[in-house]
Amino acid sequence: MKSITFFVIFLLLCSCGNKQNTNNDESKETPKLSVVETHTPLRAVNEGFTKEIEDWKEFNTLISFVKKFEKVSPREALSNALELNDLVKNLKNNIIPLNFDIPSFHARVNVLENETLRLADLTLISAITADEVNSQVEKTIAAASSVNSKINTILSKKRFEDEINFDLDNIGIDSTKIDSLSRKTIDMNKQKKQVKKKYTPEK
User: Fold this and answer.
1) Which end of the chain has fewer beta carbons closer than 10 Å to its terminal beta carbon, N or C?
2) What is the pTM of this model?
3) What would the DSSP string read from start to end of 42-70?
4) What is the spatial distance between Cα 97 and Cα 100, in angstroms, rounded to a whole number?
5) How many CB atoms are located within 10 Å of the residue 158 CB?
6) Is the pLDDT of residue 68 over 50?
């Protein structure tokens, strides 16, 4: 009889000990979720290109919101995750400026949307850790930086082409390899030449 009593008491003590350890683990994790983490800064669009995108409201609103995640606690990141994902969807659902309405740019935006979805999904996990949230925030910022990097590449290429006077007639068979953006720039330059020639009086 005594052995049975001791066995029951032993089980109760073990059970209480496990509950206490679980509570201690939870209490340790809760403060970590409130600790502000400094993340990799978002890569910006080059200052020389700001005028090209200053009227793109959806993009500018999104990027301003992403910057808030550069220095944020996991708890704050989760509380803003759904709004961030909505801003990416808003960008996709509205008109994309012609210069950026190309597959390679849309691919970058799709990656960003996937990362914001993953961050939003973390809000549904009750036992999520601070490290897991911080890791996903890093991936989300990196995806947004990739979008900005693509904008820099597109506008750098456009500026380079605008500064050069192409003559499509001299390109020959290689003209078939010109992408749509380059061809558009070439055609515009040809039209400008024709207009200038037409209205320039002969000496």
Assistant:
1) C
2) 0.70
3) PPPPPGGGHHHHTT-HHHHHHHHHHHGGG
4) 6
5) 17
6) yes
Distance of CA 32 to the CA centre of its chain: 25
> 110 or 171, which is more confident?
110
Output the six-digit token pair for 123: 């809000």
Confidence category of residue 22, pLDDT binned at 50, 70, 90? very low
| CA–CA–CA angle 171, 175, 178 (5° rounding) | 125
CB-facing half-sphere around the CA of 19: CA atoms within 13 A: 6
Average pLDDT of span 68-81: 98
The H-or-E segment that residue 38 falls in is strand 37-38
Q: Nearest Cα to 88, choosing from 122, 117, 49, 52?
A: 117
Q: Are 148 and 63 in contact (CB under 8 A)?
A: yes
